[in-house]
UniProtKB/TrEMBL annotation:
Pathway: Cell wall biogenesis; peptidoglycan biosynthesis. The gene is murA. The lineage of its organism: Bacteria, Bacillati, Bacillota, Clostridia, Eubacteriales. GO terms for molecular function: UDP-N-acetylglucosamine 1-carboxyvinyltransferase activity. UDP-N-acetyl-alpha-D-glucosamine binds at R92, R121, P122, I123, D124, L125, D303, L325. It comes from Faecousia intestinalis. Gene3D superfamilies: Enolpyruvate transferase domain. Belongs to the EPSP synthase family. MurA subfamily. This is UDP-N-acetylglucosamine 1-carboxyvinyltransferase.
Amino acid sequence: MDIFCIRGGTPLHGRIALHGAKNAALPLLAATLATGARCELLDCPDISDVTAACAILRHLGCAVEQHGGIVAVDAGSACRSDIPAELMRKMRAAVLFLGPLLARFGTAELSLPGGCVLGARPIDLHLRGLRRMGAEITLDGEHISARTDGLHGCTVALPLPSVGATENLILAALGCRGTLTLCNAAREPEIGDLIAFLRACGADIRGEGSLLRIRGGVPLTGACHTVLPDRMEAATYLAAAAATRGDVTLTNVRPEHLTAVLAALERAGCTLTQQNGSLRLQCSRLRAAGPIRTAPYDGFPTDAQAPLMAAMAVAEGVTVFEENLFENRFRHVPALRALGAHIHAARRYAVVTGVRELHGASMTATDLRGGAAMVIGALCARGESELAGTAHLKRGYAELVPTLRACGADITER
C-alpha cells in the first residue's frame, strides 16, 4: 500500500497521543552501540527509519528485539565495523554510526547516507571534527573509510550548530583519551535527550547548551530510557488542525519545545490551551502568521516549515517563508500549487497568498515533511486527492492514517 486517498473538507476533532521522536530515537539507537551493553528504549516510534537503524545494529552483530514501542539492544555482541551501502542508503541518520564505531572498534567502513533529498547536507563537519580527534578518514566517491589508533580529547569549534555533527562527535568522544570540548554545539531537545541517556549509562558529560565537555574512557553500562515526544509530529498535527479549522488536543507533548511554532500559530489566530500535560488547538478563522524564518533551535524549525506553509495556503493574507537551513526545502510547493495554492517561490523565499479553498489533486511526496504538507493540503481541499510516495511519510510518522481517521479525516491507504 503506497497511495493515500484523501477526501478533504472535514475539520479535525479529537485527541492525539504523540509518539517518541524520530530525531531522538535514531541517535539513541546509534548510542547503544557505543555502550557495549544492553539498553532499552521505550516509546520508540514504529517507523521505517527505526527499522533501518535496527537492521544496521543487527548487521553489526548486536541483538535487537522490538515489541510495540520498546526496542531492546544488546550491543555486547557487536563484532564488525562495516555497514553496507544498501543499509546506509535507507536513511540520512545512518552516518551517526560513524562516531560509535570509531569509539568502540577504532575503525569504520561505510558509505554516504541516504534519506530525503533536501539539497546539500554535507558531512564535512562530522569528518573535520573526527579528524581533529585523531581519526584518519578517506572519502573515495561515496565510500568512507575511517580508522584510528586511539581518539584523543581536544577542542572542536563547529562553524555552525550542526545537529548531526554534534551527535556524532559526542558519541565518538565516549571512546577518546581525555576530554572533548565541543563549542557551538547544536541545542535541539533531541540532543539533550541523547545526553540524558548517555549520563544514565554513566557517561561524564558536562555543560549544557552550546558548550559541552565529554570525558572519554569512562566505563558505560546499559540503561532504560523513554524517548522524547516528537515535536515535529506535534507541529504537523497542529498545522493540520489549523488548516481544517479544527479542534485537536495533543497528549504526551512538551510545549516548551514548540515555542516558535506555537507563537506562529497564535499569530495566525489559533487558540492554544495547555493543561495537565496536554496542548489543545482550536481554530475557526485562520490568518497569515507573518514572516516565518527557519533557524536552529530555538528558532522556527525547518521541519515545520512545509506543514505550516500548507496551512497558510488557506489563511487570510500573505505569509512569507524564509528557508535558511536547506536550499532545496520547497519541493512541496508544486504539489500545493496543484491543489490550487497561490505560492511564489524563489531561492530561499516563498510568498504564500492564502485562498478561500483548495481542490483535490494527484501528488507525489518527495520527502518526509513535504509529504506531510501535501496531506494537510488535501485534508482541507474540496474533493478527493491521491498522494503517492508515501514511503517518505512512513520514515517519520507512526500510524499517520489511523490517527487522522480517529480525528474525523476521510483518508484511506491502498
